[in-house]
Design a protein that fits this description.
Layout: H1 2-8, H2 24-27, H3 31-38, E1 44-49, H4 54-58, E2 62-64, H5 69-74, E3 81-85, H6 88-98, E4 103-104, H7 117-126, E5 132-134, H8 140-143, E6 148-149, H9 152-161, E7 166-170, H10 174-182, E8 187-190, H11 209-218, H12 227-244
Parallel strand pairs: 1-2, 1-3, 3-4, 5-6, 5-7, 7-8
Length: 246
């Protein structure tokens, strides 16, 4: 996300509290490996989930978020073979919504694949009146058990409108804090995995308040990208914004 901010605002200073605060999705898709796959099919139209590196964005035709992925895929050229990177679970969910077949990169968010059919079945049995809301980065086995599958932003509106006083949430645990602020009168139950009662992204948690203070005070570490990467990566982002505005 920090690289995306730099791509869209190259003239501005972009700081990141911890340069090692990456993403399992980003790490799963090295740009050189993506380039090799693209070379096997000149007709590929590459759709990249925003959780990827600047280099992968630069190799893509269009970017998407979990909130607009369906619209982006529906707008893709009908005569092209779609390649969806790097989240295979989000990609398969979009295919379920659109009927558009795609080739999926074999990547995932390590947090969202921790939930299993068994762990979700147990929590649903314990709270039979509570609807389950899951992020599309979850596996199909979990999505099939959900009452609603939606992006983080749509989770807020769904929970605000839900009649139930208790809602089970299957996404990164930090989202529960925001949901509790938005809906203080409701109980949010973290969907358990086989390992613990919640899921935390250790990459996100690397950006601490202390590191934020230090990076603001010292103006480092700064995110830098080559002008070539910025120029190439900006085009698919702008294409996404154009399609989303329609």
């Amino acid at each position: 996300m920090a690289e995306t901010a730099k791509i869209l605002s190259p003239q501005k200073t972009v700081l990141l509290p911890d340069r090692d605060a990456g993403c399992s999705l980003e790490e799963s898709c090295p740009p050189e490996k993506l380039r090799e796959l693209q070379e096997t099919n000149p007709n590929f139209y590459t759709i990249a989930y925003v959780n990827c590196s600047a280099e992968v964005k630069a190799l893509s035709d269009v970017i998407c978020t979990s909130g607009n992925a369906k619209k982006i895929v529906e707008a893709a050229p009908p005569d092209r073979d779609l390649l969806f990177v790097p989240d295979e679970n989000l990609g398969s969910w979009v295919t379920e919504q659109t009927g558009r077949p795609m080739t999926y990169w074999k990547g995932n968010c390590y947090v969202h694949v921790e939930w299993t059919h068994d762990s979700i079945t147990r929590i649903r049995r314990e709270h039979p009146e509570a609807p389950l809301v899951a992020h599309p980065e979850c596996t199909k086995a979990v999505r099939m058990l959900a009452d609603e599958v939606c992006s983080t932003e749509k989770m807020v509106t769904y929970c605000q409108a839900a009649e139930s006083d208790a809602i089970i949430i299957a996404t990164e645990v930090g989202m529960l804090h925001r949901l509790q602020k938005e809906c203080p009168e409701k109980q949010f139950i973290p969907a358990p995995t086989e390992k613990c009662a919640c899921n935390e992204c250790h990459f996100m948690k690397m950006n601490t308040l202390e590191k934020l203070h230090d990076c603001m005070a010292k103006r480092t570490p700064e995110v830098t990208l080559s002008p070539e990467i910025i120029e190439r990566a900006r085009l698919p982002i702008e294409r996404m914004l154009e399609i989303s505005a329609r």
